Amino acid sequence: MKVLVLANFGMGLYKFRKELLKELLTRGDEVYVSLPSDDKYVPKLKKMGCHFINTSVDRRGTNPVSDLGLLKKYISILKKVEPDIVLTYTIKPNIYGGIACRLMKKPYIVNVTGLGTSVEKKGLMQSMVLRLYKSGLRNARSVFFQNESNMNFFMENKLVHSKVNLIPGSGVNLQQNSYHEYPIENEKVNFLFVGRIMKAKGIDELLEAAQHFKKQNTNVVFNVVGPSEGDYSDNLNDLNHEGVINYYGQRSDVQEFMKRAHAIILPSHHEGTSNVLLESAATGRPVLASNISGCKETFDEGISGLGFRVKNAGSLIEAINNFLELSPGEKEAMGRAGRTKMEKEYDREIVIESYLNEIDEES
């Protein structure tokens, strides 16, 4: 069987879907991946045995001419590869890949990894994107959603008419993200943020909280890991110099930071299902996260994590204070509970099995 995968980012495809790709390759399927070229993850995908098709995808652009070019590219790929099934991930491959598959009468399975800013905010842009999504999903054989809220939104807006499946995000590889003993608390409690440095990830609320605790002379450390997007670089460097945060930029050794952390903080405004929270919990670290779909499902309140109101620095500060009041033993127990939850509910094998069942059903 020929399987074509349409994606927008090599890192995301390799880090969160490689187990599915390996399973397809192991059973003898030909796997083609269409995404932008890079120097790190595309070579790994090719080494696995995937056929690579270089496809430029402007992930955040709204240029209709550029997007029309992407649609034409997908049609060309479908003609050349002639896949038996197409898997699409993220908004533009979902929309334009879906339209291309419909025009070319190719079966396709869609994964809605999250709504995204253009859908979250009401207005002309949301209206345009929803119309495009409706067209892209019209003939999908199956649509996977990573949280119930996103699924309900699409169904209420009559964007999907095909079979829908609710899966636990991308799942988490429990072997790669193994449990690590909880770090001993010495003088300071170590909080960690991992993610893109952007407004939608709640970085403004995090920095406000960090400044609050700096003024209070509380014995806490805020480590921030991730690439800066937008106009945050100067502010991050200033706060780093002042000792408000420790900013490390983008790193490939994120797990080492997780091992040393006492808790992970994610004040995100919207998520499909947060992979950072899944990996943190699997490692045995408590999570402090926004009470939004895509975050709140990944922990049990007061058992494996603490929630707080979205876009509310005061609520985040309160959650941090509540965590600081816990004993070291209670914090460690919270981390162990998170690992248990990941083993029961978020094992990536669950996601792989769901996909294989759908792929085989359509073959």
Task: Please give a structural write-up.
This protein has 363 residues and is of the alpha/beta class. The chain folds into two domains: 2-171 and 347-362, Glycogen Phosphorylase B (Rossmann fold, 3-Layer(aba) Sandwich); 189-345, 3-Layer(aba) Sandwich (Rossmann fold). 46% of the residues lie in helices and 16% in strands. The chain contains 14 helices and 13 strands. It has helices at 10-26, 41-48, 64-81, 91-104, 117-120, 124-137, 148-156, 203-215, 233-242, 254-260, 275-283, 313-324, 328-345, 348-362; strands at residues 2-6, 30-35, 51-54, 85-89, 108-112, 142-145, 163-166, 189-194, 220-225, 246-247, 263-266, 287-290, 305-308. The strands form two sheets. A seven-stranded parallel β-sheet has the order 3-2-1-4-5-6-7, sandwiched between helices. A six-stranded parallel β-sheet has the order 10-9-8-11-12-13, sandwiched between helices. The chain starts with a strand and ends with a helix. The mean pLDDT is 92.
